[in-house]
Amino acid sequence: MFGLGAGEILIILVIAFLLFGPKQLPEVVRQVGKAIKGVKDTAEDLRKSVEPELNMIQQEVKMVEQDFQASIKDAEEQINAVTAPAEKKQVDSKGSSNQA
Question: pTM of the predicted model, to two decimals?
Fold first, then answer.
């Protein structure tokens, strides 16, 4: 709990007992418990409100990535379409000059 060991918790309890006394200690512990629960509830509410936004952003990033990959593929195909006829002409001209 909070990264505290048993000895550390015992020291905190003894100090709390000395500061607040046996009559006030249960009320102090109750108030601390309520405060911790309030923080946990607030954190959970925040997580619930932020999580859908994060999911939407992740989906948008995936879509952009897919579009980017498709654009790269299209560009490669266009480059291949332009360079393939030029390479074929070079091969044909080399082949015809070797045969002559």
Answer: 0.48
